[in-house]
Design goal:
One of its GO terms (cellular component) is mitochondrial inner membrane. The protein has 255 residues and is an alpha/beta fold. The chain is 37% helix and 13% strand. The chain is built from eight helices and eight strands. Strands 5-4-6-7-8 form a five-stranded parallel beta sheet, sandwiched between helices. Strand 2 and strand 3 form a beta hairpin. Helix 3 packs parallel to helix 7 and helix 4 runs parallel beside helix 7. It is globular, with a radius of gyration of 19 Å. The N and C termini lie far apart (45 Å).
């Protein structure tokens, strides 16, 4: 089954359950009251397919120029990634960028909604060569990052950092592997705790543990730079819209 067929259901489920599971701020949702003015109604972002206009952040050509279409060699293909493969050239697997673009837009849209609702977002990666760029991206959008070796139980062991530590509301994986075939431990921990995840999955990855998998190159610098740029912009748009809503609909929110 194509992974994107249930994305709309998963997206709606995740957004609506975040406030109870991860305590995402829901102050932007007005209380029902007969006193709320009918002349200025607060729009519901979930009613719009692209409320933050993330679909115009990139084109398929941008993905191609950033070498997102390049996978690994044919011998390393994970069978669950076959549905995203267009073909191969000189033993190198090639992604179907039309599918990548569709799934990337869904991931960016979900990310913007999390930022809009005040959720905590963490960027996670393992490759040292991309650590500086990813940490810089997280700082620029005032979020968090983890680009070092993952300590087992960072999310799942409350005795490690204390019971009062708030877990993230979204984890963005710029690569989902610890080694050539070993899934990143943080991916497993996110699944155990029902933390939604967005992840770049290369041809040798297992995509089923990721809430919003994005098939694409996960190690070329140009590709990583593009991903960072897009997710940063999605987060900033979500936060900007949140600020705009608070200023414009403050009288409704306070009722």
């Amino acid at each position: 089954m194509h992974l994107s067929r249930n994305c709309q259901f998963i997206f709606s489920r995740n957004i609506k359950s975040l406030s109870s599971i991860h305590q995402v701020q829901n102050s932007l949702t007005p209380k029902k009251s007969e006193e709320i003015s009918t002349t200025l109604e607060m729009p519901e972002p979930l009613d719009h397919p692209d409320f933050f206009q993330v679909s115009n952040l990139f084109t398929v050509e941008d993905l191609f120029n950033a070498r997102v279409h390049f996978g690994h060699t044919m011998g390393t293909l994970n069978e669950h990634m076959k549905q995203f493969i267009l073909g191969s050239r000189l033993e190198t697997l090639i992604f179907d960028l039309d599918q990548t673009a569709e799934l990337l837009r869904e991931a960016l849209n979900f990310t913007a909604h999390i930022a809009f609702r005040g959720g905590i977002i963490i960027f996670i990666a393992r490759y040292k060569q991309n650590a500086y760029l990813i940490e810089k991206t997280a700082l620029e959008c005032e979020e968090y990052s983890h680009t070092r070796e993952w300590r087992l139980g960072t999310f799942t062991d409350p005795n490690r950092f204390g019971m009062m530590t708030r877990l993230p509301d979204l984890a963005i994986f710029l690569n989902t592997l610890d080694s050539v075939f070993e899934t990143h431990t943080a991916v497993i921990e996110c699944n155990k705790l029902l933390i939604p995840s967005v992840g770049i999955v290369d041809t040798n990855c297992f995509p089923n543990f990721i809430t919003y998998p994005v098939p694409g190159n996960d190690d070329t610098p140009q590709a990583i730079e593009l991903y960072c740029k897009l997710f940063k912009e999605a987060i900033l748009r979500g936060k900007a819209k949140r600020k705009e809503f608070i200023e414009k609909y403050q009288h409704i929110i306070e009722q």
